Structures are given as C-alpha cells and as structure tokens.
Amino acid sequence: MAVKEGDEVVPRLNKVIKAARSARVPVIFTRDWHPADHISFRAQGGIWPPHCVQGTPGAAFHPSLEVPAGATIISKGDDPGAEAYSGFQGTDLAQRLSAMRVSEVIIGGLTTDYCVKQSALDALQAGFKVNVMEDCVRAVDVKPGDGARAISAIRKAGAKIIDSSIAVKQMASTQQ
Question: Dihedral angle at the C-alpha atoms of 59, 64, 70, 71, nearest 10 degrees?
Fold first, then answer.
C-alpha cells in the first residue's frame, strides 16, 4: 500500500540497522503478510485496498531496505478473518524479545497511525520500554492529522519519541 514519502525512512532505518548489528543488538523486522481474502480488504468489507498479499511483490520489503541474511522476520495479519496492526498481535514477538533478554525496543517503519502506533502500545503493554523514531515513520493519514495524533497517543502512553540519530548513538554506547 502506498504511503506518501514512505521510502524516505529507508536510508535512516538502514543506518540504525547497521549500528544495531555492529553493537550486536537484535534487529527484528515485522511485515503484513495477508492472504488474498483478508478481512481488511475492501472486497471483504474492510477499509483498505489489497496490500502486502503473501508471496507477491507488494509484500516484499522496500528494495533498498538492508535486511540482513538470516534476519528475524515476524509476519502478521496472516489470519484471513482477523485484523493485526501490531507486530505483537497474533505473533510470538513478545516471547522472542523476552527470550533475547530485550527490555527496550526502538521502532521505525510504516505506518505511524496504524502498525507503528499499535506495535508501540502493545510493546508498552507487554512491559517493554519503547522508543519510536519519529524521522523513521510515515503515516497513511486516512484523516489528515492521524499521524500526529498517533505520535501524541504513543507519547502519552509512555513511549519516548526520538530521532534516529539518538538510536544510533545509543547503539554505539552499548559497544563501549
């Protein structure tokens, strides 16, 4: 699904990914992985056009996003009858993070007002400290201002809103 200026986050995300890998910090990718008859699609009464359909080019990560070989990829939204905006919803993401002894997450990606917001809120609910890189997210803005309202809700819930340069510095400090 097209998100205005969504590709602009990729170079910044790549810098954070590189810094995390250098610091040996886990990097986990989440993705929508919808069946062709997913409930969120207009043909099934949902609000969205078909997007991120399993096995199609539209479900692939952006071609410039540097996804390391062997990266952990969490697929969500693969139940045709259930919405899943959060990377935690219907997945084992919380358990995986706990098993890796992760206590704090840094989130970037698309879309601020849906997947990023719900993932951040669910991460807080699961007991993780949460940072959202505001320069590494973009909103779909179904209603103008949805993205800004999402950032406000994320902040109000207890997450920190940061810039990707702060995330890179945090990674560098773990190496020392």
Answer: -70
- Encode pLDDT of 64-104 as tens digits: 999 998 899 999 999 999 999 999 999 999 999 999 999 99
List CB contacts of 98: < 8 A, sequence separation 6 or more.
Answer: none
Long-range contacts of 38-45 (CB under 8 A, 24+ apart): 38/77, 38/80, 39/80, 39/81, 39/82, 39/83, 40/77, 40/83, 44/80
Query: Is residue 46 within 8 Å of 52, Cβ to Cβ?
Result: no
Distance CA 12, CA 14 (A): 5
Backbone angles phi, psi at 128, to 5 degrees: -90, 150
Residue ranges of domains in the chain, CATH in brackets: 6-175 (3.40.50.850)
**Residues ≥6 apart with Cβ < 8 Å to 64:** 7, 10, 11, 14
pTM metric for this prediction? 0.96
The DSSP-derived string for 82-121 is ----STTTTSSHHHHHHHTT--EEEEEEE-IIIIIHHHHH
Q: Which residues pair with 72 in a beta bridge?
A: 28
